[in-house]
């Protein structure tokens, strides 16, 4: 995405991306409970173009639903690296913001944006479906304005992100081929 | 005299527990010596008919310097639980594995080995289970300082120290709302 000087095609592409967000809801925490009512008939998130994706390769938006243990952080990073650009991340709940009620837990990370770039944070414990929809709408605005550039940020600051990930995940780290293939990530 | 009281008398006679009492109506708790655990569980399983193994858990009695292992079994027809407890030394925690009696004990013992550091002698597979790359003190022990660990391993987000009590923060508006 060339956002320094967005042409008319980029504008059209962003408009299209905004209206078809395929969600990979990786249920790490209690936020996974809030997603079925968001998707089903009462709140009906499909009217915003949201729908579920089966695999990371098909998904545009990764929803991190709640606290992340270090063990699931490794899987989340791998999932995120498997997704194709353009890709967005939404973090639900206060646990992803500052640890929430797991602030002194030995196995829960405290700041998600140290490890992967986050486009939208939705505060609350747990956020209701209305809050999730509000987050989707603000993400759509960011996409339309060309500001949702998480993947670019990740690519440019890969050393910094990998350093942070290595600090918390330790020696038993992700293999290089998840991100370091020919032609860059 | 109902079934569970008769059972208590029989077990008291056979295994001479340090303590036996009823925490709940259908639960009998007996604390036996280390060498009597296998005998008590075998008796309950094969003679009394407590076929179902419910769970094994571990309690950390930090002040006494002991770990307490709790084996709970269930009688499906009489609808009665029995908790067989035993105390082991906290400094060098070791116990014999009972995985040959119920196979699910393998998993319970592996978890307790990981979370409390109790070494189960004869266990076929004492290896990493839930934690990954864990070094140092097992995290479920009571003298494990989680806050210290977090300060060493994670970064805080700024602003956390400015947390207010909701009562102080809302203040007069809350009082007014209460008065209505």
TrEMBL record, chain A:
One function term, GO molecular function aspect: NADH dehydrogenase (ubiquinone) activity
Residue ranges of every copy of the NADH:ubiquinone oxidoreductase-like 20kDa subunit domain listed in the record: 29-138
Entry similarity comment: Belongs to the complex I 20 kDa subunit family.
The protein, known as: NADH-quinone oxidoreductase subunit B
InterPro entries: NADH_UbQ_OxRdtase-like_20kDa, NADH_UQ_OxRdtase_20Kd_su
Gene Ontology terms: cellular component: respiratory chain complex I
UniProt keyword annotation of Iron present: yes
The species this protein was found in: Thermotomaculum hydrothermale
From TrEMBL, chain B:
Matching Pfam families: Complex1_30kDa
InterPro entries: NADH_quin_OxRdtase_su_C/D-like (IPR037232), NADH_UbQ_OxRdtase_30kDa_su (IPR001268)
Family of the protein in this entry: Belongs to the complex I 30 kDa subunit family.
Single GO molecular function: oxidoreductase activity
Entry EC no(s): 1.6.5.3
Identification of the protein by name: NADH-quinone oxidoreductase subunit C
Span of domain NADH:ubiquinone oxidoreductase 30kDa subunit: 30-147
Keyword Oxidoreductase part of the UniProt annotation: yes
Swiss-Prot/TrEMBL keywords: Oxidoreductase
């Amino acid at each position: 995405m060339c956002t320094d000087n967005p042409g008319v095609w980029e504008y059209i592409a962003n408009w299209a991306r905004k209206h078809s967000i395929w969600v990979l809801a990786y249920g790490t925490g209690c936020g996974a409970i809030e997603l079925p009512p968001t998707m089903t008939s009462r709140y009906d998130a499909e009217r915003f173009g949201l729908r579920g994706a089966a695999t990371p390769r098909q998904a545009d938006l990764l929803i991190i639903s709640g606290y992340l243990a270090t063990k699931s952080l490794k899987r989340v990073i791998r999932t995120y690296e498997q997704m194709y650009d353009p890709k967005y991340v939404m973090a639900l709940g206060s646990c992803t913001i500052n640890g929430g009620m797991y602030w002194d837990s030995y196995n829960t990370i405290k700041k998600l944006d140290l490890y992967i770039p986050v486009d939208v944070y939705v505060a609350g414990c747990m956020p209701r479906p209305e809050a999730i929809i509000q987050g989707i709408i603000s993400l759509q605005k960011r996409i339309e304005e060309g500001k949702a550039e998480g993947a670019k940020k990740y690519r440019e600051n890969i050393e910094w992100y990998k350093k942070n990930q290595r600090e918390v995940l330790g020696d038993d780290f992700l293999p290089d081929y998840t991100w370091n293939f020919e032609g860059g990530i | 005299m109902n079934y569970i009281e008769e059972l208590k008398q029989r077990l008291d006679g056979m295994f001479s527990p340090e303590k036996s009492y009823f925490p709940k109506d259908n639960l009998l708790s007996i604390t036996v010596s280390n060498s009597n655990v296998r005998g008590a569980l075998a008796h309950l399983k094969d003679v009394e008919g407590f076929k179902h193994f419910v769970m094994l858990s571990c309690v950390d009695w930090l002040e006494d310097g002991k770990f307490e292992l709790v084996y709970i079994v269930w009688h499906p027809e009489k609808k009665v639980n029995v908790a067989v407890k035993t105390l082991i030394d906290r400094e060098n925690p070791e116990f014999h594995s009972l995985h040959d009696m119920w196979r699910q004990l393998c998993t319970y013992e592996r978890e307790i080995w990981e979370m409390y550091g109790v070494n189960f002698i004869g266990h076929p597979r004492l290896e990493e289970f839930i934690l990954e790359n864990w070094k140092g003190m097992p995290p479920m022990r009571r003298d494990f300082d989680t806050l210290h660990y977090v300060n060493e391993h994670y970064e805080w987000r700024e602003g956390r120290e400015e947390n207010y009590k909701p009562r102080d923060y809302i203040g007069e508006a809350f009082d007014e709302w209460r008065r209505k």
